[in-house]
Fold this protein.
Amino acid sequence: MSSTDVAAHEIRTSLFRLVRRLRQERPEGELSYSQFNVLGWLEREGAMTNADLAAAERVTPQTMMRATTDLVASGFISRADNPADRRQVLLEITPTGATLVREDRRRRDTFLAKAMDATLTPTEQELLHLAARLMDQLSEVVE
């Protein structure tokens, strides 16, 4: 195994552990991970079709329809006709959904900031900040 292979393995496993830990900061009984992802897409990108959301999440349109139907029923997203194509329905985050997303991000960011302050030196925190920017670059690689 090359040193790059070892580093790739360590980064991947560390990211999974951190994501798992951050998920624990969500209260029991709240939305599923995939439902939060849908809200995140709509909050960042604005109104989208079910097909666009399915493609973004790499799931089938039928799977996405189940998630979005529940979110509509809960009042976190709404449906509207697409003015550019009346055959399509646009899904849009509601103010209630946007508040939920902001509170979720704030809760997880607060946990992470406290954990960083409690366990990492200022130099380590700066290195982690740099690593975050580098991981963003890696996430944009298209093959």
